[in-house]
TrEMBL record:
Protein name: C4-dicarboxylate ABC transporter
Species assigned in the record: Arcicella gelida
UniProtKB keywords: Membrane, Transmembrane, Transmembrane helix
Transmembrane segments: 7-27, 39-56
Length: 83
């Protein structure tokens, strides 16, 4: 059960980073970016970094979920034919 919670949290974080990145790229002149960043160029740069980091986190969750699913299978199948 805790692994499902961790997967859910990681998926939500990946989506959050990606959505914030897309919003910064689409709206670089918003009140938030004007308050926090000195120019629109920084908003584009930070938005791109956040989007890439969100994609990276989503990819890590996907890989982790596939690794967890493969653990149920026999890990030593490559030794079966070597007697």
């Amino acid at each position: 059960m805790p692994s499902r919670i961790f997967v859910l949290v990681n998926v939500l974080m990946a989506l959050s980073y990606s959505v914030i990145g897309v919003l910064l790229i689409l709206y670089p002149e918003s009140a938030f970016s004007q308050m926090m960043l000195p120019s629109a160029l920084y908003a584009y740069a930070l938005g791109t970094l956040l989007l890439l980091y969100g994609i990276f986190r989503a990819w890590r969750v996907y890989i982790k979920m596939n690794d967890d699913n493969d653990e149920g299978e026999d890990k030593y199948t490559h030794y079966d034919d070597k007697h």
